[in-house]
Predict the structure.
Amino acid sequence: MMTRSPAALVHATRRAASVCWRCRTAAGPPPEPPQPQSEYVSRERLHQAAFPKPRTERFWQDVRLKLVDGRYQIFLDARPLRTSSKHTLSIPVNKPLLAYALQLEWVLMRTSKEALKPHFIPLTSLVARAIDLEQEQASETGEGSSRRG
């Protein structure tokens, strides 16, 4: 077995320093951005004309969120939003995100026919049902206590 001295393991040749050359792929300024061709522009305009934007056919113009008696209420123009049992739909002050979500639900509605279908207004349906149940329980407990006394 042959043993090597530690000096033999060290390279005697000097490494050449690496030189970084800038590599240019293209000379001159960058090219101009591509311009749409007229056939594609006219095709896009025809497509937009074939599918017009949906019209809004609803009886209210704007949806507002107001603070009334310490509770949020949603107003369609000047009329407050009501439940199916004619109670005013009002949200507690500590739930502003729910009130904003309800407002957004009515802002995004395009036709008043959508308001008649509960699957188009799921939050409003849930909140209205909860308010109706709360009012029903309050009236039952009020009547029950008057009967006992």
